[in-house]
Amino acid sequence: MADALNARELRQDEWREKLAMFGLSLPALVLVFAIIVVPVGWLFWLSLFNDEGVLSLSNYTRMFDSKSYTRIFITTFKVSILTTVFCVLISYPFSYFLSQLPKRWAAIGLFTVLLPFWTSLLVRTYAWLVVLQRKGLVNEWGIELGLWDQPLKLAHNLNGTLVGMVHIMLPFMVLPLYASMRAINADYVKAASNLGANPTRAFWLVFFPLSLPGLLAGMVVVFVLCLGFFVTPAVLGGGKVIMVSMKIETLIDLFFNFGTASALGVVLMILTLAVLFLAHRLLRLDKILGERGA
Amino acid sequence: MNWLSRPVSDIQITHGSRLWLYIVSGLIMMFLVVPTLIVIPMSFSDSQYLEFPPRVWSVRWYDNYFGSPEWMTATWVSVRAALLTVVVTTPVATLAAYGLSVSNLKASRWIFILLITPMMVPVILIAIGIFFAYAKLNLNNSMFGLVLAHSVLALPMCLIVISAGLKSYDMNQELVARSLGASRVKAFLVITLPQIRFSVISGALLAFVVSFDEVIVALFITGGEISTITRSMFLALRDQIDPTIASISTVLIMVTTLALVLTQVFGQSDSP
């Protein structure tokens, strides 16, 4: 009898303590609610009214009817997909190289990834502008060496935007990819060789599949970050590459049109969260399959 | 034996057959580092069009930067905002990380996800949302509003780093202290905090960098006297290219390199 009472008291005590500890996250919750959830919710509410203040979906239907909005979404996807593809092509061999080095040497190699990662985004974008513009380094040197006569159009267009964005996104791809490659047990590859696979076969049948989770994680992060990118295309695109974020900024800055801007922002957010959610399911699935396989 | 024909490891592949990989990786490392670093010598060029290597060396763009009241004001606004962001975010994130890790309820995971949403929602949407809300509250163009906004943006990174630090910490040590008579607060301050201090310091550094580097929210909610340096740089870049930005960039590269070295030092001592 007394034991049962004691047990109940103890359980209540534990519960009370857990709740108190849980309460420590309250300041953070209040901050996120006040600065993110309420304002974004408010914007969503605004996006449901048309210019006359009547409840309607016109802010959303406009996106599908108007050619200019379709073009902006196509540009956004094109830039994001191309950046992700280039990042994969560059990161994979580089991460593989780093993962094969002794840890001490790999740390030096990783420093070349971390340095740009920590450098201000704006500084890096500016650096590319200096390198790529009409009177920039590449053009000056190319003409001096006689490689081409007229300055090439490297900045203020899609090329410049892509170069800048790939440079900025590379660390987000290299870091998870390197981590997953480091975690691969070298004995697996050795076992494959021992069983008669040549290096190419051992790589594609053993190493590559094991590196896929890191590759997928990197691709998702890069793609999602690209979708919402603003600074680099605004500076290096020279007004020729209009992404969704930039359109939103123009709508607010020039027209103070919160309804349309919010609708665009909401669609951008839904796209982003959808990609994240899908990736979450996919990567989870991968893990389940992996466990079952093992 | 020739290095090129020597095998890389226990598998048969030789350094020679991997030569292409070494060359490609060297080029990638140059691609990563050179464009940023090349700004440093160029900022000492005397010409309006930055040259490399500079034909005439001078510090005129540094004079321009350090002599301009606008740039100096913007720099101090950024530094103050970043320091205040650290002061707000670090304790809030530490409390949340500790609370969620100790309570360990089912809801804790969901709260964690909610707290890192600022990282997942597109920044532009957050920016116009805050701009709109601040317009009603008259908080635009205020240091208070800027610090609040930056604190929320810095919260996810800070929380993730500190939570990771707590994961490898054995909470039983705190129970021991409490069973010996220490209060919960004392046990946390004397036993737990010193052991997770490197994660907390890394989190604080990250918060500083997030705030100092932030452009988009500052673009909307600040202006006039309270304009951050990145906002001024962005506007200057979009309109015309002022070589002064090269000198500012060089200063920023120095600062971030220092921060990177600091985190490497702290990060190293965190893992046994």
User: What percent of the residues of chain B sit in helical stretches (DSSP H or I)?
Assistant: over 70%
Radius of gyration computed on alpha carbons of chain A: 25 Å
**Total domain count of chain A:** 1
Q: Domain count of chain B, please report it.
A: 2
Sheet having the most strands of chain A:
none
How many strand units of chain A? 0
Structural class of chain B: mainly alpha
Number of strands of chain B: 0
Binned, the helix content of chain A reads over 70%
Uncertain regions spanning at least 5 consecutive residues of chain B: none
Shape of chain B: globular
What does this structure look like?
- The complex is a heterodimer of chains A (294) and B (272).
- Chain A is an all-alpha fold and 294 residues long.
- Chain A has one domain: MetI-like (MetI-like fold), CATH 1.10.3720.10.
- Chain A has helices at 2-22, 26-46, 58-65, 67-100, 103-118, 121-132, 137-144, 158-182, 186-194, 199-227, 231-236, 244-255, 258-293.
- By secondary structure, chain B is mainly alpha-helical.
- Chain B has 2 domains: 3-61, no CATH class; 70-239, MetI-like fold, CATH 1.10.3720.10.
- Chain B is built from 14 helices and no strands.
- In chain B, helix 4 (69-103) packs across helix 8 (143-167), helix 8 runs antiparallel to helix 11 (197-213) and helix 11 (197-213) runs antiparallel to helix 14.
- Chain B is globular, with a radius of gyration of 24 Å.
- The model of chain B has no long low-confidence stretch (mean pLDDT 88).
- At the A-B interface, helix 1, helix 2, helix 4, helix 5 and helix 6 of A face helix 1, helix 4, helix 5, helix 6 and helix 7 of B.
